[in-house]
Amino acid sequence: xxxxxxxxxxxxxxxxxxGKRYSRLIHRLVAEAFLDGYxxxxxxxxxDGDKHNNCVENLEWVTKxxxxxxxxxxxxxxETENCARAHAERAARNKIEQGKPIARYSLDxxxxxxxxxxxxxxxxxxxxxxxxxxxxxxxxxxxxxLWRWLPKGSVTTTxxxxx
Length: 163
Prior knowledge:
Helices cover 34% and strands 24% of the residues. By secondary structure, it is α+β, with helices and mostly antiparallel strands. It folds into two domains: 4-73, Alpha-Beta Complex (Homing Intron 3 (I-Ppo) Encoded Endonuclease, Chain A), CATH 3.90.75; 99-149, Winged helix-like DNA-binding domain superfamily/Winged helix DNA-binding domain (Arc Repressor Mutant, subunit A). Strands 7-6-9-8 form a four-stranded antiparallel β-sheet. It has a three-stranded antiparallel β-sheet with strand order 1-2-3. The chain has a two-stranded antiparallel sheet with strand order 4-5. The radius of gyration is 24 Å and the shape is elongated. The termini are far apart.
């Protein structure tokens, strides 16, 4: 078996059982085999922060929250105000670019809201995605309104309460 690094920096191994291939994190395998104290939802922490040091003495079971706090405390994770803002802006841009924009209209044709995605419409209005998709595709009424697809890029900001 040869350890293989993944994007997160951890090492994995590939195992074959009954002809089926599995990829497993080495630190998790070591902890499950040799560490006592496992509890529901436990995460394996590398005490020294080195994701390649999978010696049993360097591993322990912790909560996910504790693991994240340690990572910040030990400088393994950090988020500055600028990083947080950039991350939020990138996430909003991705939603806008990847979502399928949709608009809600009154029965007399007045635009009520624009949403950058079906998920955003669902979150804001509590509507079922399948119902408004069907209405937009067939030109029928759903939730007392008409729904129409908008061209990609036509909703350029993340709506707070619809626009």
